[in-house]
């Protein structure tokens, strides 16, 4: 039998079966001699599961971008800036998670073939082959914390090993390492992951060196002066032998970063590093069988820090050791628990490297509400922390890209930056998650099954948003088949009444009918209790909303017959809801014939046009005036409540809705919380609502036709008396300044000349004209320029 050609994928030659059931770190290195420094030396690099790349002892990059079972990404990295004449070493550390997704980070895909891939695009000698040396890392292991706090298996048990010191540097002696083994083309094929490599679709994450603010204010002045100096890189801390010490450190804000601890000596010493979002009160309450700890003022340090913990063990003997977290950590406060043996331990440095998506927020805005500056600040920081290699729900817990969250996050990104690269990747990822029945996974990439039927509708809304802001007809065409299958699922589950039947329930059922974290729904984990007895009105409402937005997507690409079909289907479901889901008082019930009511059902009745504008206004006003009678929208659904109030001409009612964010400011949060019930996560970007409201509604700058071919500058003042700002559009920065005096609005607009011809007033174009303008402009140079500028 002929020998099969080898690939550029390499791995351990003695990979044991026992290594397959736990996360493992493998170190690789290759030495080269360079006589003349190149202006550029690009490497194409990937790994299963993750890599960190070093050149001559310096950290260069990490990746690859998160893929899934169908798409595996490779990065291109120019290592020329880190090279020097003479001997050089290129090194990589690979973290491999087991195939069983619950035995590792369940948002990271993996295949049956762990490995490292490097292709030297300059034609040199750095392409991975059997000449590369490798070894299992004896220093770093993954440790498991409590599942509720650390579900991702990211925290580490690290031990400084003298034999590994300097392994990323040219001077290191790797004679005891083994040569790597290359996979052949039968083991890794070019048609499937990880062999079928795709270019990285997003930029590399930012990496910014940062210092901590200092110790929290519960230590003596002498302790704080000494530690603060070390934390700012201006001194060291000496811990005596045979002693214990606990210190708690403030980062000043919730952030995401790679931690770095540098010590000297301290043979046998252990430093435990706990990362936490906040302090918790001693008392606790129970929610749905799990322990939920109460939170308060986030600057009140008289409580308990709860979070993930790394453990570092030092060999000492007068030598310097450096631990750097392999994956980023999320923290506002960090606790160091230090225990020494006979030898003193000197802490030379404790810093972090801020990481995240390199968002360029060009939009700035101000309004007469004195709290808006603070709300804008925490909202923008929240969005930044929830933008990593994908949009994520929260950086502290799951780090998963949920569809409902991502729809809001992408829209907020468009409003402040016009950058759609992360959103395009999210849309493509969600499309690949589609199941045979038509529904999407609620979060993706994800190693398991997690279906929330309504989240598939938010994908359609997200696709519609992209159409309005970027007008990429090719992208819409590619996704419409997925949209059709989603809508077919809902259509095939209509009951005899003509509304969506019971398709989900609690987490214990096949699908989770989550709607919102409403306080009165806490025992049913976000599911209206009516859903335990039968169909949910909200699932029919969302189906209608999806049909209406899908119809506009179809119009945009010329599928007019399908668009008409979708509108007809929506109208039929509306008739069913008006026949079977309205109580005696006219309010929409949470389920047909069940006298349970929520603000959500009234909101979506307005948004879908299932109720008239005038009647919808009355319904909404009543839900605001009688909050105890209606389950209230929480931060997760507040965007839709704001849209409904705007639609019925009651935007002034948003004044008191901002109290939820004012409460965050009063509690000294630096990011937006997840929900109103227990604020489980202190950082959840669906709460970054003001990033849309200020520029797009209050200043009024938003697209009027697909691709921003036409756009509005129509402020909605509500209760405010003044606002101004600079809003990023594909046509340049549009400046808006308005003031309301005696009910009269004086608006000043300053926009580039090119932009002015694209500004229209509301009511100047009907929907059919909007689509006609956009459809005709799809292949026009001006539209293409618009899309190019938007990216």
Specify the structural class: alpha+beta
Sheet with most strands: 11 strands, mixed
Total count of strands: 34
Question: What is the gyration radius calculated from CA atoms?
Answer: 28 Å
Q: What is the percentage of strand-forming residues? A: 25-35%
Low-confidence stretches: 772-791
Distinct helical segment count? 16
User: Can you give the mean pLDDT?
Assistant: 93
Q: Judging from the principal axes of the Cα atoms, what is the shape?
A: globular
Helix content: 25-40%
End-to-end distance, in Å? Answer: 51 Å
Explain what you see.
By secondary structure, the protein is an alpha+beta fold. Helices cover 26% and strands 27% of the residues. The chain is built from 16 helices and 34 strands. Strands 10, 11, 15, 16, 17, 18, 19, 22, 23, 24 and 25 form an eleven-stranded mixed beta sheet that branches. It has a six-stranded mixed beta sheet with strand order 13-1-8-3-6-14, with no helix packed on it. A hairpin with a 2-residue loop joins β27 and β28. α6 packs antiparallel against α7 and α7 (537-556) runs parallel beside α9. The model is unreliable at 772-791 (pLDDT under 50).
List the helices and strands and how they pair.
Elements: E1 6-11, E2 24-34, E3 42-48, E4 50-55, E5 58-63, E6 72-78, E7 86-96, E8 115-120, E9 133-136, E10 140-142, E11 156-159, E12 178-179, E13 181-184, E14 197-199, E15 206-210, E16 214-215, H1 221-231, E17 237-239, E18 244-265, E19 270-280, E20 284-287, E21 290-293, E22 304-313, E23 320-324, E24 329-339, E25 345-356, E26 364-367, H2 372-385, H3 403-416, H4 421-432, H5 455-470, H6 473-492, H7 537-556, H8 560-580, E27 589-591, E28 594-597, H9 599-607, H10 613-625, H11 638-647, H12 659-666, H13 690-698, E29 701-703, E30 711-713, E31 722-729, E32 732-741, E33 744-750, H14 753-756, E34 759-760, H15 767-777, H16 781-790
Parallel strand pairs: 6-14, 11-22, 30-34
Antiparallel strand pairs: 1-8, 1-13, 2-7, 2-9, 3-6, 3-8, 4-5, 4-7, 9-12, 10-11, 15-25, 16-18, 17-25, 18-23, 18-24, 18-25, 19-22, 19-24, 20-21, 26-31, 27-28, 29-30, 31-32, 32-33
């Amino acid at each position: 039998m002929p020998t099969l050609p080898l690939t550029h994928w390499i791995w351990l030659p003695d990979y044991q079966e026992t290594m397959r059931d736990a996360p493992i770190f493998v170190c690789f290195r290759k030495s080269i001699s360079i006589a003349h420094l190149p202006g550029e030396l690009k490497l194409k690099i990937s790994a299963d599961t993750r890599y960190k790349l070093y050149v001559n002892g310096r950290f260069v990059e990490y990746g690859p971008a998160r893929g899934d079972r169908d798409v595996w990404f490779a990065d291109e990295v120019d290592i020329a800036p880190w090279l020097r004449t003479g001997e050089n070493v290129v090194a990589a550390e690979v973290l491999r998670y087991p195939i069983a997704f619950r035995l590792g980070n369940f948002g990271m895909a993996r295949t049956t073939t762990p490995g490292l891939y490097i292709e030297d695009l300059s034609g040199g000698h750095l392409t991975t082959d059997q000449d590369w040396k490798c070894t299992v890392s004896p220093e770093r292991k993954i440790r498991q914390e409590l599942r509720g706090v650390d579900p991702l298996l990211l925290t580490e048990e690290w031990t400084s090993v003298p034999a590994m010191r300097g392994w990323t540097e040219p001077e290191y002696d790797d004679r005891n390492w083994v040569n790597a083994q290359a996979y052949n083309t039968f083991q890794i094929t070019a048609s499937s992951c990880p062999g079928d490599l795709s270019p990285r679709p997003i930029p590399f994450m930012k990496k910014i060196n940062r210092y901590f603010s200092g110790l929290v204010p519960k230590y003596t002045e002498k302790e704080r002066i000494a530690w603060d100096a070390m934390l700012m890189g201006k001194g060291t801390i000496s811990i005596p032998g045979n002693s214990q010490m606990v210190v708690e450190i403030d980062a000043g804000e919730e952030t995401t970063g790679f931690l770095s601890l540098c010590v000297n000596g301290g043979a046998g010493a252990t430093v435990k590093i706990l990362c936490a979002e906040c302090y918790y009160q001693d008392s606790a309450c129970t929610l749905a069988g799990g322990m939920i700890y109460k939170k308060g003022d986030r600057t009140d340090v008289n409580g308990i820090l709860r979070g993930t913990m790394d453990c570092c063990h030092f060999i000492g003997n007068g030598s310097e050791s450096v631990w750097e977290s392999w994956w980023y950590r999320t923290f506002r406060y960090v606790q160091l628990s230090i225990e020494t043996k006979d030898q003193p331990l000197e802490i030379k440095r404790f810093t972090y490297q801020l990481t995240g998506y390199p968002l360029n927020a060009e939009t700035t805005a101000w309004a007469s509400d004195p709290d808006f500056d603070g709300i804008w600040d925490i909202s923008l920081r929240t969005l930044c922390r929830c933008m990593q290699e994908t949009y994520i729900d929260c950086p502290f817990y799951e780090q998963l890209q949920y569809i409902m969250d991502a729809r809001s996050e992408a829209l907020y990104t468009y409003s402040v930056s016009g950058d759609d690269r992360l959103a395009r990747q999210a849309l493509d990822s969600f499309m690949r998650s589609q199941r045979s029945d038509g529904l999407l996974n609620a979060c993706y990439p994800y190693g398991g099954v997690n279906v929330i039927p309504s989240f598939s509708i938010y994908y359609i809304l997200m696709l519609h948003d992209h159409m309005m802001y970027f007008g990429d007809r090719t992208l819409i065409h590619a996704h419409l088949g997925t949209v059709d299958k989603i809508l077919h699922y809902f259509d095939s589950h209509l009951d005899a009444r003509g509304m969506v039947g019971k398709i989900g329930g609690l987490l214990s059922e096949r699908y989770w009918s989550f709607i919102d974290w409403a306080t009165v729904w806490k025992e049913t984990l976000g599911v209206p209790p009516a859903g335990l007895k039968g169909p949910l009105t909200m699932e029919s409402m969302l189906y209608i909303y999806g049909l209406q937005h899908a119809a506009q997507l179809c119009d945009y690409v010329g599928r007019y017959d399908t668009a008409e079909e979708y509108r007809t289907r929506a109208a039929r479901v509306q008739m069913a809801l008006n026949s079977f889901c309205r109580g005696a008082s006219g309010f929409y019930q949470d389920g047909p014939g069940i006298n349970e009511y929520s603000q959500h059902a009234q909101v979506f009745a307005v948004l879908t046009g299932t109720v008239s504008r005038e009647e919808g206004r009355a319904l909404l006003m009543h839900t605001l005036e009688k909050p105890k009678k209606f389950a209230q929208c929480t931060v997760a659904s507040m965007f839709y409540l704001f849209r409904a109030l705007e639609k019925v001409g009651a935007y002034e009612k948003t004044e008191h809705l901002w109290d939820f964010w004012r409460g965050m400011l009063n509690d000294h949060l630096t990011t937006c919380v997840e929900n109103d019930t227990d604020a489980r996560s202190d950082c959840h970007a669906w709460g970054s609502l003001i990033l849309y409201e200020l520029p797009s509604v209050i200043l009024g700058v938003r697209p009027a036709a697909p691709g921003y071919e036409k756009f509005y500058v129509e402020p909605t003042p509500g209760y405010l008396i003044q606002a101004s700002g600079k809003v990023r559009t594909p046509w340049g920065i549009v400046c808006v300044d308005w003031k309301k005096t005696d009910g009269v609005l004086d608006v000043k607009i300053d926009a580039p000349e090119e932009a002015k011809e694209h500004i229209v007033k509301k009511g100047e174009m009907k929907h059919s004209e909007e689509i006609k303008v956009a459809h005709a402009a799809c292949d026009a140079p001006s539209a293409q320029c618009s899309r190019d500028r938007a990216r």
